[in-house]
């Protein structure tokens, strides 16, 4: 790969010893020779010769020190006094020894004002690929190949989405030495060049801080409006409806004055809220009857919601396959058809809702029919076991195909007005052994919900105890905030 221009702000720091100029070494050698000749010609005894030798040695050491002092950074030279009869050390050898000592010394700190290379971020745009992103950062396809195909887990970098961040780190010569893919605020993949030239991968997962929050409210018009007034997000309101969907029809059952209490988690990163967590416990009081639900993970690792007696809140079928809508027509065997103007049995329930409203599978099953007819419009039929069939008519769009397996609350289509319909609504039918039954009352004859086994009950009661106390305090109005600082804001 060709070398690149050094990026702005990056400084190359070389910790190599500074060479002593050749002319300085020559001067030292000549000076040493002259001193030696003068010493041999001068008269005097052995004592005078020793004195002159010592003086000569000192002058050489001072000269070497001055030469080395002229090079940066300075090197400390330790003088070794000559003894009688020894010859003076060679100046060139002394310089070489000092430079060798400097080479072995620890590297000095970068001069003040210089900064280390920094990560440069690129935001993934719609339609981007790795080649485009690397090119914007100043790198080529060779770099892409090294990171993606020669690095462990490198192919994970190919799974990029708009809004994510890819950061690059360049070396002193502009070469690529690091890539950082920020997948989410919680997950990061970092690829950094190792000594062997290959990129090593590091996967980092952050754990958010989990805080407990609560909310209480009253129904004035619908669960959706009440949830908004309580400060709950739309996803949290839908989650609440799914929890109670087996015991409450949120189209028909809620009444003005019904109360809701929710204890849930919030996830924080760096002191700021990142997202909502799971609902820990909730209660819904409908027409004087209170339903409580508690989140519990059993010994097998399965998570579900149960009432205080360990009975699952998840029933075999939802009471209503749509949420937060108004009822437009009930089950009626002698209804006057609004289009054909004839008395025809209405063997189902119509849920009026805006076009595009999600329609859910009422229970687990298999799609046995999915198509279109002049009367039914877009329709989906689901078989649940051997005895039960649910039908969904007048859909705007179908989201499933014949033969497909579905789970309760899976979206199977959207509300529409296709076929013989006067306006957007869902026509919902429920059949038992091939006979139409009223969807609003059949739930009383459906299989009972499963309960936790007796072996799980001690763990269950221990796990839900704090949440149970919290719900009781919310229901009584005392609003005791368990596991929280006393200054938590009330919702």
TrEMBL record:
A Gene Ontology term for the protein's cellular component: cell envelope
Main location: other
Gene Ontology MF terms: metal ion binding; metalloendopeptidase activity
BP-aspect Gene Ontology terms: proteolysis
Pfam family membership, one: Csd3_N2
Residues in M23ase beta-sheet core domain copies: 345-439
Entry keyword annotation includes Nucleotide-binding: no
Keywords carried by this UniProt record: Hydrolase, Metal-binding, Metalloprotease, Protease, Zinc
Domain called Csd3-like second N-terminal: residue spans: 213-332
Transmembrane parts of this sequence: none
CDD domains listed in its UniProt record: M23_peptidase
InterPro entries to which the protein is assigned, alphabetical: Cell_wall_metabolism_enzyme, Csd3_N2, Dup_hybrid_motif, M23ase_b-sheet_dom, NMB0315-like_N
Location within or outside the cell: Cell envelope
Domain DD-carboxypeptidase/endopeptidase Mpg-like N-terminal, chain residue ranges per copy: 119-177
Cofactor dependency: Zn(2+)
PANTHER family: CELL DIVISION PROTEIN YTFB, PEPTIDASE-RELATED
Name of the protein: Peptidoglycan DD-metalloendopeptidase family protein
Organism in which the protein naturally occurs: Parahaliea mediterranea
């Amino acid at each position: 790969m060709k070398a690149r221009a050094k990026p702005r702000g990056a400084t190359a720091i070389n910790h190599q010893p500074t060479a002593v100029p050749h002319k300085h070494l020559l001067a030292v050698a000549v000076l040493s020779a002259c001193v030696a000749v003068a010493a041999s010609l001068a008269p005097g005894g052995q004592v005078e010769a020793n004195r002159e030798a010592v003086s000569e040695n000192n002058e050489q050491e001072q000269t070497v020190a001055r030469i080395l002092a002229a090079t940066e950074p300075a090197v400390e030279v330790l003088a070794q006094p000559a003894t009688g009869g020894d010859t003076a050390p060679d100046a060139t050898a002394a310089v070489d020894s000092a430079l060798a000592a400097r080479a072995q010394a620890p590297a000095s700190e970068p001069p003040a004002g210089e900064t280390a290379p920094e990560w440069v971020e690129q935001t993934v745009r719609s339609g981007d690929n790795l080649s485009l992103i690397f090119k914007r950062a100043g790198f080529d396809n060779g770099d892409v190949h090294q990171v993606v195909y020669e690095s462990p887990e490198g192919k994970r970098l190919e799974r990029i989405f708009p809004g994510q961040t890819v950061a690059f780190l360049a070396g002193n010569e502009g070469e690529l030495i690091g890539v950082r893919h920020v997948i989410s605020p919680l997950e990061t993949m970092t690829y950094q060049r190792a000594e062997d030239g290959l990129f090593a991968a590091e996967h980092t997962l952050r754990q958010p801080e989990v805080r407990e929050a609560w909310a209480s409210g009253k129904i004035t018009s619908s669960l959706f409006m009440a949830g908004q007034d309580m400060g709950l997000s739309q996803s949290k309101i839908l989650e609440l409806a799914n929890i109670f969907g087996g015991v409450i029809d949120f189209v028909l059952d809620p009444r003005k004055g019904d109360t809701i209490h929710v204890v849930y988690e919030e996830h924080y990163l760096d002191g700021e809220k990142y997202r909502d967590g799971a609902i820990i416990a909730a209660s819904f009081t409908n027409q004087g009857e209170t339903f409580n639900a508690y989140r519990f993970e059993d010994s097998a690792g399965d998570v579900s919601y149960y009432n205080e007696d360990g009975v699952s809140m998840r029933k075999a079928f939802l009471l209503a396959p749509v949420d937060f809508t108004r009822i437009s027509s009930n089950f009626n065997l002698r209804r006057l058809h609004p289009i054909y103007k004839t008395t025809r049995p209405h063997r189902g329930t119509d849920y009026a809702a805006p076009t595009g409203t999600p329609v859910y599978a009422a229970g687990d099953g298999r799609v046995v029919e999915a198509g279109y007819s002049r009367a039914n419009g877009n329709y989906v039929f689901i078989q649940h076991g051997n005895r039960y069939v649910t039908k969904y008519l007048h859909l705007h769009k179908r989201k499933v195909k014949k033969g497909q397996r579905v789970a309760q609350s899976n979206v199977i289509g959207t509300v529409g007005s296709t076929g013989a319909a006067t306006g957007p609504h869902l026509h919902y039918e429920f059949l038992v052994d091939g006979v139409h039954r009223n969807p609003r009352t059949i739930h009383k004859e459906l299989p009972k919900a499963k309960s936790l086994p007796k072996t799980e009950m001690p763990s269950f009661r221990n796990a839900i105890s704090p949440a149970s106390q919290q719900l009781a305090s919310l229901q009584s109005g005392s609003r005791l905030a368990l596991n929280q600082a006393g200054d938590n804001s009330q919702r």
